[in-house]
Design goal:
It contains 14 helices and 32 strands. It has about 750 residues and is of the alpha+beta class. It has an 8-stranded mixed beta sheet with strand order 2-1-5-6-7-8-4-3, with helices on both faces. Strands 25, 26, 28, 29, 30 and 31 form a 6-stranded antiparallel beta sheet that branches. The radius of gyration is 26 Å and the shape is globular.
Length: about 750
């Protein structure tokens, strides 16, 4: 592995919330807000020279633009000439400016001049910068790990780019985390607030290089603060009753996990007050990618369902640090189990796992004292009040499936430990493996998943009715979900951002499997060792995933994400795009350990609302920070090949017919009905499901497919009443599906087929 060791430092907030959308108590942390204008004399801080005039420091992140006399000066957090103002004597908050200050804001050209035209600047759909890689401030920041002074000084680095980031008057945020890696790069995370609530998935990262200069910033902060709900909201009990009434009979909700949230809804450009209700994911047994729960975001007035998102996190508790789960490992004596295990397509493998002996009861426990991993019963923990029934044995004999799961999780743990990350969050938080994954009726679930950081444990589930826990790439995939969640501080598990989340797990899971020589596969397959192959990362189209933006099977972003109906915008489908980019990077000559380091470091600058362009920028940042800048060209070529970097717009790429494909389009005449969703299902002529697509904002369903013959089916569902309609394309056009035979739809290479309105 790389010699670069990443370590996380202490969390800065007095009480860090485990759920980023939970309501916040008053004065639990220092906050910053936009409001008072105290502009400095220079957009660069206190320097008067321009980027083009400075010889700079020679850093891959660009010139410092500071003069020789000022090169060693640090930012003074008590300084009062910044547009970010001074501390509020009453509540300890810090003020920024009351809107862009004319003549005081940097342009993209200014930033490129500071970085010899090598800065990477990504703008989100709202036009504001979402990721900036390169220097944008010429004054050193005095880094004191774990001290709030560093977070305060870092805020001043935003002095000249508030306009680019879209930071508006009244924007309030707090420092939620700060860490420093072994190369002395400092990572600071801030989360946005509105009143006493943290805005869901609104995060800003600042990175400071070893010299003390800010070298990257990323933001998913919202840019407007208007709220749509007026008057007195309903109680959470009243709204939950409405939600349960709408749902399918038998849906299992967790009332104690209900949280209040404020979410940014791009379609209406408002912040919505809502409740978040959690229930078991009804699709949890359909694929290993499915997350354990569904988070239902419903307006406080009981009128609107905003999101229906899979999640691995329950908003049960504000803080899990008080759980003394380390105590379970005390008093135990470390020992091992060694033997041969049949890893299915991987054959027999001699393995050793760590177990523990308890001298008090004379029993062996499947516990790894070094890594703080324990195995327990799934049903007891999930459905009997977090009861811990640890797996134990009188004579150190174990079921082979449990041995395989423990061994694979030890391997995943060690892969991250090799770069300094102990446990998914880097804080050695204990890990709980829940065996015999099941539902509340004790029926086995055919899945493996990252469940949540729950009751002070990182919890993972594995089943006995499917063999995927024998796959190291699957275990590495689930483990990485927890790592990504810890780094990004949330995730918009929908559209591009959700596909990126899945892709990171695919990439890291496969790298881990390759590094341990656990597969002979050369195609970057997933779950192939248990015979459950579900994707080919080197050729995504084989498993009906796109290989580029707008390619075959590509899913356009959806306005209403719903996992049960639209895969929350194709998160398990469009992941093929960044997956292929990763394989291309590897095939161009990057080693596995370099690639593992590259991708992990890039997580540090991702926000919950990432686009594919943000991944590219984050990987370029990571290459420069790790000293892998010789790979910038291959990263650029890979993301160019998959359409992320293009002289065409996203809309143009989505509208063109990709090479080797034809395209079908259908207009849904009833599109726009309140609470009604539509989707097109595509089958081969033998009835095998291949893919789906959804209407755009104009009600047009468009899908690119390889040349061939297909069967089409359109479904509609009312998310309020659960009433549904099902139509097939038959000989007379679209017909209600009551067993009618579908007509064959022929897709011709390079041709657009416009079908009758549905």
């Amino acid at each position: 592995m790389s010699k670069r060791k990443s370590v996380l430092a202490v969390c800065l907030s007095v009480l860090m919330l485990s759920s980023i959308f939970a309501g916040c108590g008053e004065k639990e942390y220092d906050s910053y807000s936009l409001g008072e204008n105290k502009a400095s004399d220079s957009v660069f801080g206190t320097e008067t020279t321009t980027g083009s005039e400075s010889s700079g420091s020679g850093s891959v992140f660009g010139d410092s633009t500071a003069s020789a006399d000022e090169e060693d000066e640090y930012a003074d957090h008590e300084e009062e000439d910044s547009i970010f103002g001074t501390s509020d004597e009453d509540d300890g908050s810090f003020v920024v400016n009351d809107g862009p200050v004319e003549g005081k804001q940097l342009t993209e050209a200014d930033i490129q001049a500071m970085n010899n035209n090598k800065a990477i600047i990504v703008r989100s759909n709202n036009g504001y910068v979402s990721t900036l890689v390169g220097r944008y401030y010429n004054k050193k920041i005095k880094v004191v790990p774990g001290e709030m002074v560093t977070a305060e000084d870092a805020i001043e680095s935003l002095n000249g780019i508030a306009d680019l980031l879209g930071l508006q008057e009244g924007t309030e945020f707090f420092c939620s985390d700060m860490g420093q890696d072994g190369a002395k790069y400092t990572y600071i995370a801030y989360q946005q607030r509105d009143g006493q609530s943290t805005i869901f998935n609104a995060t800003l990262h600042i990175v400071i290089d070893p010299e003390g200069y800010p070298c990257a910033v990323s933001s998913s902060f919202t840019t407007a603060l208007g709220e749509s709900i007026q008057g007195t909201p309903l109680s959470k009990e009243e709204v939950l009753a409405k939600v349960i009434e709408m749902d399918e009979p038998g849906a299992h909700y967790y009332p104690e996990a209900t949280a209040e949230a404020k979410i940014w809804v791009a379609a209406t450009e408002t912040i919505e007050n809502c409740y978040v209700f959690f229930k078991d994911n009804p699709l949890i047994d359909e694929s290993f990618e499915a997350m354990r729960y569904i988070a239902v975001y419903f307006s406080k007035d009981g009128k609107n369902l905003f999101w229906y998102l899979p999640t691995a996190t329950l908003g049960v508790e504000a803080d899990t640090s008080y759980y003394n789960n380390d105590d379970y490992f005390k008093g135990m004596q470390a020992t091992t189990w060694s033997g041969s295990v049949n890893f299915l397509n991987g054959g027999n493998l001699d393995v050793t796992i760590n177990v523990a002996y308890n001298p008090n009861d004379g029993m062996y426990y499947m516990m790894d004292l070094e890594r703080k991993i324990a195995v327990a019963d799934c049903y007891d923990f999930l459905y009997k009040g977090a009861t811990l029934t640890f797996l134990k044995s009188k004579d150190n004999t174990w079921d082979e499936r449990d041995i395989a799961a423990m061994y694979n999780y030890e391997c995943a743990y060690d892969a991250y430990k090799a770069i300094g990350i102990k446990s998914p969050d880097g804080f050695s938080t204990p890990i709980l493996l829940l065996r015999k994954y099941c539902n509340q009726n004790q029926e086995g679930i055919e899945n493996a998943c990252y469940m949540a950081k729950y009751f002070g444990w990182f919890t993972f589930c594995y089943c006995e009715v499917l063999d995927i826990s024998y796959d190291l790439d699957v275990v590495g995939h689930e483990y990485t979900h927890a790592v990504t969640e810890s780094c990004i501080l949330g995730n918009n598990y929908m559209n591009d951002a959700g596909a990126i989340n899945e892709s990171y797990s695919d990439v890291m899971g496969n790298i881990i499997e390759y590094m341990y020589n656990r597969t002979s596969d050369k195609q970057w397959l997933s779950a192939e060792m248990s015979g459950e192959t579900n994707r080919n990362m080197s050729n995504p189209i084989e498993y009906h995933q796109p290989d580029r933006i707008g390619g075959a099977y590509y899913i356009r972003n959806v306005e209403v994400p719903n996992q049960n109906f639209n895969d929350t915008g194709g998160v398990h489908i469009n992941s093929g795009i960044p997956n292929l980019a990763a394989v291309l990077i590897y095939q161009a000559g990057m080693s596995l350990d370099t690639m593992f380091d590259l991708y992990y470091t890039s997580m540090q600058v991702l926000t919950p609302a990432n686009s594919y362009e943000d991944i590219y920028a984050a990987l370029i940042y990571s290459a420069r920070a790790n000293g892998y800048d010789q790979y910038e060209d291959i990263i650029t070529k890979a993301f160019t090949q998959v359409g992320v970097l293009s002289d065409k717009t996203r809309q143009q790429l989505e509208e063109e017919i990709p090479q080797g494909c034809g395209k079908a389009e259908i207009k849904v005449v009833n599109y726009g009905y309140e609470n009604v969703l539509f989707r097109l299902l595509v089958y081969d002529t033998g009835g095998k499901f291949l893919g789906f697509s959804f209407p755009d904002k104009n009600g047009i369903i468009s899908i690119a497919l390889p040349e061939g013959n297909y069967l089409f089916n359109i479904q509609a569902i009312n998310t309020q009443s659960n009433q549904s309609g099902d139509y097939v394309f038959g000989s007379s056009g679209w017909e209600y599906n009551n067993g009618r035979n579908a007509a064959v739809v022929t897709i011709t290479n390079g041709k657009l087929l416009t079908l009758p309105d549905a």
